[in-house]
Amino acid sequence: MHGVTNGWGSGLDSRQLQYFLALNHCGSFRLAAEQCGVSQPGLSKQIMALEGELGGPLFDRTGRRASLTPLGECFLPYARRAYKELEQSRAAIGELLKPDRGEICIAGLHSVNAYLLPALLAVFRQKHPGTQLRLTSLGSERIIKVLLDRLVDAAILMGPVHSPELVSTPLYEEELVVLLPAHHPLARRPSVRLAEVAILPQVVFRDGYAMRTALVQHFRAIGATVDVAVELNTLEAFKEMVRQEVGVAILPLCAVQHLGTDLVIARLEEPSITRRVELVCRKDNYQVPVVAAFTRLVAEHLPTAFARWVHTGPEPWLREASYLAG
């Protein structure tokens, strides 16, 4: 971080700013060179280069003490401010590059944030206690936008992702199932055809959610349209709407575990439907230490978390998360 762009020329060297300020403070090329840990000729050369960049002499060298010229007096406050900002930026970047310091903003799918990520975030916090975490739940299409806009550092979303600015890691394939009231005629069967579900009123995600887009595409593929009963964006609201018989809902399997006796799920067939969940970062920041530490943890353990949650419930996964933390 040596270059500083400016209005006088192509750029100033941060060493030149340091040497200029030291010479102004010491009034002696010899003392300034000692303070900066360089040779006196080296310091003199950089001061002359700075004067050439700015277009005139900064120091009067005729007396026993090097003193500022009018040009040097004019430049002094700008040099102090620029050098201070450089030092502050170095300190900030140094903090960012520490794997156990900084802030990481994460955007995730509602079901992932609600059921799978909390235990992993607890593990991450224990390993990196100086890191502040920010977590937000959004639909996949919105997640991609905030990721590209640099509002979040990493994301877990519904793939596939098509952007040259992003790098994606597949985590797992998740089955989509139908959520039904327990006394619904289709609830007596373990699986139903998509065409049977498509004729019913649907509780759906709002526009802008990849689940909504996928539902429309799957219905269109069998010659059906989505009869929207209500649009929502929270999982608990989905369950309550289905419970109240407003409609049925096609949801990720992870989102409909451990239901009460008044709700049931049925598998879809002809066709079955899945979604791919992916971990996504921008190419320009996925190697930042705090982001890299988070993505490694997620890539290694979230697929296992999903499999255990779906097949055996949350308790075994929570025990494993506790083991990881230890």
TrEMBL record:
GO terms for molecular function: DNA binding; DNA-binding transcription factor activity. Pfam families: HTH_1, LysR_substrate. Keywords: DNA-binding, Transcription, Transcription regulation. Residues 12-69 form the HTH lysR-type domain. One of its GO terms (biological process) is regulation of DNA-templated transcription. The keyword Transcription applies. Transmembrane segments: none annotated. The keyword Transcription applies. CDD domains: PBP2_LTTR_substrate (cd05466). InterPro entries: LysR_HTH_N, LysR_subst-bd, WH-like_DNA-bd_sf, WH_DNA-bd_sf. One of its GO terms (cellular component) is protein-DNA complex. It comes from the Bacteria. Belongs to the LysR transcriptional regulatory family. This is Nitrogen assimilation transcriptional activator. It comes from Gloeobacter violaceus (strain ATCC 29082 / PCC 7421). The gene is ntcB.
